[in-house]
Amino acid sequence: MPRLDAVIVGGGVIGLSAAWRASQRGLRVRVLERAAPGAGASRAAAGVLAPDPQTPGFTALARASAERWRAFAHELGDVGYERCGSLVLRFGGDDVAFAGEPLTAAQVRRLEPGVAADCTGGVLLREDAQVDPRRVVAALASLLGDAVAVGADVAAVDEGGATLRDGTRVEAGRVVLAAGAWAAQELAPDLPVVPVKGQTIRLAGPPPAARIVRSEHVYVVPRAKRETVVGATIERAGFDDAPRREATESLLRQVVRALPAAAALEVVEQSAGLRPGTPDDAPLLGDWNGVLVAGGHYRNGVLLAPITAEFVAATLAGEPPPPETRPFSPGRFAPGSDPGLTPL
Question: Which of 236, 254, 277 is a domain's end point?
Fold first, then answer.
């Protein structure tokens, strides 16, 4: 069997997207996933495609990836992509830190009649979009076929390949570490990635809004087929990824606070995943001790999947990666380096 050009550790939306783009360049790749594709943070993700103002220094990267999503989704098929826009609500003296179209309370209610009566205004973000991460993962796994190895629990990586926990060795020209929050647990202990737990819930019934609705503590993502996704908590709980009843109750309070009609919906699922956080909440894209890292996406993994995939595929092919990815080398956290990001 010919030697692999690359082995990609991690079968979430980042690893699968990178493998797919690399295979389109004619590279021979294999994804090693210890569970099922998308079983971790990708499964819990709501799929909001919008730059996160709480993550400074990466606006250019986020916008470049958001602009790629329409074509990316078209290639994959029906994955629930919709440019529906977001409405960010303000209550009382809330500070709405979003650059969009300011709205009065009356204008907010004309757009979304179900918004709570004490909403005092908001901001409309017309370009925001959504996608269903579960359908994205399923489409990518189908396209990759036998290139995805499930039940492949990686114990170690080095410049020449990966070793599974059962002793199997997978040789490759390059190793791509896309294992999310788990990347630093055993495979790269000095990589600056920590798990940040996030819980979402899914509600069944008539969606309480026509577009994404966000407030200070919650976002509400209406989907087709009478499903609404509500998220998300931010918890420092180590590698505990079990949903908590208290988190579900908190999310329910917040969604009903913003959209009272949500009180009539049924909770049909509680999901939690571990986001890969970094010291500056920005991704890690580049070499780390001989391994190509595509990680640290924190709350933006789905949003950044297209441009991350392009970065990995171009790097593996020896081509220039997208310029927006340049500031995000893991080397910014190497001893003696300046970790500050300069927005492009």
Answer: 277
